[in-house]
Specification:
Blueprint (H helix, E strand, L loop, with lengths): L4 E4 L11 H16 L7 E4 L1 H9 L8 H16 L2 E2 L5 E2 L1 E7 L10 E4 L3 H11 L2 H19 L4 H15 L9 H19 L7 H15 L3 H10 L7 E7 L10 E6 L11 E6 L5 H4 L5 E2 L13 H4 L1 H18 L3 E8 L2 E9 L4 H13 L5 H7 L2 H6 L4 E2 L7 E4 L1 E4 L2 E7 L2 H9 L4 E5 L7 H6 L2 E4 L7 H9 L2 E4 L5 E3 L4 E4 L2 E4 L3 E5 L4 E4 L4 E2 L2 H6 L9 H16 L3 E5 L3 H9 L5 E5 L10 H9 L3 H25 L4 E5 L12 H13 L4 H17 L11 H6 L1 H20 L5 E6 L5 H22 L6 E6 L2 H5 L1 H5 L4 E4 L1 H9 L3 H4 L4 H6 L16 H15 L4 E4 L7 H9 L4 E4 L4 H16 L1
Parallel strand pairs: 3-4, 16-17, 17-18, 18-19, 26-27, 26-33, 27-28, 28-29, 29-30, 30-31, 31-32, 32-33
Antiparallel strand pairs: 1-2, 2-7, 5-6, 5-7, 8-9, 8-11, 9-10, 11-12, 13-25, 14-24, 15-19, 16-23, 20-21, 21-22, 23-24
Bound molecules: adenosine-5'-diphosphate and magnesium ion (2 copies).
Length: 909
């Protein structure tokens, strides 16, 4: 580590946006803006490497650090023409944390560092405003006391409230210099009382106290929990930014604000932001006063002027910066600015968090504007946002009882029980309860509760408040700044007029409209889903327009095919409209559970002779034929993989215990002898079929080997269905799949039966059907002997659910709810391997199987049909190992398509 500190400001800037890993996002972008010639108060960044080394050496700074910081402070002093700690002409600074990715779990920024009773005098003389001086001072003591020294925020808040009450004013801007002066004293006394330590007076101590607090904040429980939630490695560390202060609290020609270069909720290309005059730092975000809109176009309250009207020149410069930043970063930016006596200063820029709708709209429109390429648009989409586009919305036909309106901070429809604290939300949410987290405003401490809530409701704060920004990032419904509601934490209730909502009562939030409703409002399909289901015309939905445009680009890029797992024609139709290119898995057992079928299936299982079994099987044939016809029709012209019966037979029989109870009852009641005997016979069969370990028992192709009639019947149904459809002018493409093969001989036998039946049927009907017979690879032995198996199989489909079970030796149902969460908590496993494919273990078997399978049969078709087929990182893996397609549930088809395209683009990078 040669260089530990990087300066920014004007021509002396040493960093740039490419140095995000070293300087953190905030530091790198401050440097970048300075390089672009945008006015940024000078400062410097202590690199993330220093943080890492600080942890490695158990809390010690590298030797040279103090010296480097001193050198950079000197440089900053020269640029700003003021001295840190100087009684006449003091420089004040802020200390800001900044990891590679923005992290609300980190330390809060401390502003106005360098103030004490002495420097304050010089500061006031310099700015010529006593009130601003004391206001800055009380903010400093408050922030430093809270953030660095750990005094509860409420201790200060309540003193501030008390002061306002005493003075009979509503806003802190109405407090006088002497009020604020008193507050400084009171705040310092609180610090002394609560920490036992005096408030540090020496600017140098203040600075290092804040720097130390940033470094230690990297490992607070909040930060750790946020990292866990977002998969951020602990080894990254945070950078520290020290920056010269500019003041938005210097009276009526000063102010501070935040803005998005496009609307973060809808994605519309309009400049969207909020600001407050005579305010500092977080005032806008914290919802202390109602913020004003930056321009006329987005104004909501006609009585509040916009920046465009109040300070047209400043607004003009802000618009220029907006354009400059969008052109430069070629993405929507989230910016922070401060106006000090009519001069505009930029304090931050970063990629703006946005809703799924905004994400897709900005991506598509930026391609049309020539800012980015189609490929970049694809890269930018989060696969999980595809999911959000399909989330339900409230039924407009339902008569809703709107009790209050707030800001439509993050769209969506959510219902749940009201809770007032993040901890409680966390507790109930983990139990699977649907909850709405209600807060006056949220802060980084609430993240864990927000993560499990259905929706978030706040009484204060604007579109750029913490709740709004975090909710949009999480894709969660949020109504913010709903000032009509009265939140009473003490009595745990919300009141609006004479309506009272208690903790545990149901409410519903419409994040798209900003409405709060009583009770649980029913939901309907999202816009895209309604189009898919023919309930709306595509032309009526702009969102669908963006979606289909993006997906057309996705299809141009991706190499992997995407099929669907579907058991019914209805599912198949939906999946096809989502872009499925065939069926990768039809589970035929679902067809055996139908009400009128189960008795026949039972007859088949219980048949005492082969002849009787054949009779029952024949009864099932026409039903199965009908099932397959429906599927082939829905997927006309596209391949349909049908898996022959897989589960153990006892699954189709009544429950053992229940039957036992029934028989006992019949006997006690002196029931019909014959009937009792019949039931007892059934009981014996169930006992005979009962297995210690059904997952590893008599199932899959083992059934096909022992009861060939069942598989032969299914094959006949498949080929008869296909022949009939060909006669009707359709083009069915059947692929018959034999499950749970471990030894090639199992496949040889069952395949022979299938081919025989196929030939029989084709001869009978006088048609040629193009078909394939293949197998699932879902047992380790099958993967290892794939070369042999491929000689009998025209295709492989990886059943990674069973393959994960059998590779780990985990019985899914027995581990998922039980010890697996502990495993993940203790980092024994990085993730649930049933959700995210275990690439090193299970994936290695997949890779070996593909390699050996392709050696055994050139051009063998290979896909995956386990649930991993719709999980983005697993799809990428399937692409890398050279599969032909992935198959997933209908609703995950768009996600899989996007992930498949992203996998290609990752290779190009
Ligand atoms: P966060 O990471 O929570 O956004 P920031 O470090 O951006 O925290 O700072 C919080 C607030 O303080 C922001 O509104 C920012 O613009 C303001 N701020 C930070 N540093 C300065 C400074 N040197 N001068 C004026 N305002 C500042
Ligand atoms: Mg910020
Ligand atoms: Mg299986």
């Amino acid at each position: 580590m040669e260089k530990m500190v990087y300066f920014f400001g004007g021509r002396s800037t040493e960093g740039d946006a490419g140095m995000r890993d070293l300087l953190g996002g905030k530091g790198a972008n401050l440097a970048e803006m300075a390089n672009l010639g945008i006015d940024v108060p000078a400062g410097f960044t202590i690199s993330t490497e220093v943080c890492t080394s600080y942890y490695e050496s158990k809390g010690k700074y590298p030797e040279k650090l103090r010296q480097d910081v001193a050198g950079n402070m000197k440089k900053m002093e020269d640029v700003m023409g003021a001295r840190f700690g100087d009684p006449e002409n003091p420089l004040l600074v802020s200390v800001r944390s900044g990891a590679r990715v923005s992290m609300p779990g980190m330390m809060d920024t401390v502003l106005n560092i360098g103030l004490n009773d002495t420097t304050l005098k010089g500061f006031i003389a310099k700015i010529g405003n006593e009130r601003t001086g004391f206001d800055s001072y009380r903010r400093f003591v408050q922030m430093y006391g809270n953030v660095v020294m750990g005094v509860r925020g409420e201790a200060f808040e309540s003193l501030l409230e008390k002061k306002k009450k005493e003075r009979g004013v509503k806003n802190d801007t109405e407090l006088s210099a002497s009020d604020l002066k008193e507050l400084v004293k009171e705040f310092k006394a609180v610090v002394k009382r609560e920490t036992g330590k005096p408030f540090p007076e020496k600017p140098e101590d203040q600075l290092w106290g804040a720097i130390g607090a940033v470094f230690s904040s990297w490992d607070t429980p909040r930060a750790v929990s946020y990292r866990k939630l977002n998969n951020i490695p602990g080894g990254w560390g945070t950078a520290v930014n020290v920056q010269a202060m500019v003041f938005g609290n210097m009276g009526e020609n000063s102010g501070t604000g935040v803005a998005f270069t496009r609307d973060p909720a809808t994605g519309e290309n309009i400049f969207y932001g909020e600001y407050l005059m005579n305010a500092q730092g977080e005032d806008v975000v914290a919802g202390i006063r109602t913020p004003q809109q930056i321009n006329i176009r987005t104004k909501k309250d006609p009585s509040l002027p916009s920046l465009e009207e109040e300070m047209p020149e400043v607004y003009k410069s802000l618009e220029d910066i907006r354009e400059k930043l969008e052109k430069h970063y070629r993405d929507m930016q989230d910016i922070e600015f401060t106006i000090q006596q009519g001069k505009l200063w930029m304090l931050q820029t970063r990629t703006g968090k946005r809703t799924a709708v905004a994400s897709i709209r900005t991506a598509v429109e930026m391609v049309e504007e020539g800012l980015i390429t189609e490929e970049e648009a694809i890269r930018r989409m989060e696969p999980s946002q595809m999911d959000q586009l399909l989330h339900p919305m409230f039924d407009p036909k339902f008569e809703k009882k709107v009790i209050a309106k707030g800001l439509n901070a993050s769209p969506g429809a959510a219902s749940g029980k009201v809770v007032f604290s993040a901890d409680e939300a966390d507790k109930l949410g983990r139990k699977g309860e649907k909850i709405i987290l209600v807060r006056l405003e949220t802060s980084p401490e609430d993240i864990h509760g927000m993560a499990v809530a259905q929706g978030i409701l706040t009484a204060r704060g604007g579109m750029t408040s913490h709740a709004a920004v975090v909710a949009r990032g999480m894709g969660k419904c949020c109504v913010a700044g709903c000032s009509a509601i009265n939140v009473d934490y003490g009595r745990e209730r919300i009141t609006v007029g004479d309506i009272e909502v208690k903790k545990g009562d149901y409410i519903s939030l419409d994040g798209t409209e900003g409405e709060v409703m009583l009770g649980e409002v029913p939901t309907i399909d999202s816009e895209i889903l309604r189009i898919i289901r023919d309930k709306m015309k595509p032309e009526e939905s702009p969102i669908y327009g963006y979606y289909s445009k993006l997906m057309s680009w996705v299809d141009k890029v991706k190499r992997l095919g995407v099929r669907t797992n579907a058991d019914t024609p209805e599912d198949a139709v939906i999946a096809r409209r989502f872009g499925a290119e065939g069926i990768g898995l039809t589970r035929t057992e679902h067809m055996f559970f139908g009400e009128e079928r189960l008795p026949v299936v039972r007859k088949m299982i219980l048949a005492p002779t082969d002849e009787e079994r054949k009779k029952a099987v024949d009864e099932l044939l026409p039903m199965q034929r009908g099932d397959f016809k429906g599927l082939f029709k829905a997927m006309d012209g596209l391949p349909v993989i049908i898996r022959l019966l897989d589960p153990p037979l006892h699954e189709f029989l009544p429950n053992h215990e229940e039957l036992l109870v029934e028989i006992t009852k019949l006997k006690l009641e002196g029931g019909d002898k014959k009937k009792i005997e019949g039931k007892e016979e059934l009981l014996r069969t169930i006992e005979k079929l009962k297995e210690m370990n059904p997952m590893l028992g008599h199932r899959g192709c083992r059934l096909g080997v022992t009861f060939p009639e069942v598989y032969r019947m299914q094959a006949r149904a498949i080929f008869e269905a296909a022949s009939e459809l060909i006669a009707e002018g359709y083009n069915p493409v059947p692929e018959v799949m034999i499950p749970l093969v471990s030894h090639v001989n199992e496949l040889r036998l069952t395949r022979k039966d299938t081919v025989e039946v196929a030939e029989e049927v084709m001869k009978e009907k006088g048609v040629r059907i193009k078909y394939m017979v293949g197998t699932m690879i879902e047992l380790p032995r099958a993967a290892l002997t794939a070369g042999e198996i491929a000689k009998e199989a025209e295709f492989f489909s990886y059943g990674t659910n069973d393959l994960t079970q059998t590779t780990f030796g985990f019985s899914r149902d027995d581990v998922e709810g039980k010890f697996l969460p502990v495993y993940i908590d203790k980092k024994v496993l990085p993730e649930n391997p049933f959700a995210v494919l275990d690439q090193e273990g299970v994936g290695e078997l997949v890779r070996i199987g593909i390699e050996r399978g392709r050696k055994g049969r050139k051009g063998i078709e290979i896909g995956i049909c386990g649930e991993h087929g719709g999980e983005p990182s697993s799809v990428e893996f399937c692409h890398r190992v050279g599969m032909d397609y992935v198959s997933c549930s209908p609703f995950r088809v768009p996600i899989a398509r996007l992930s498949a395209a992203q996998a290609v683009l990752k290779e190009r990078k």
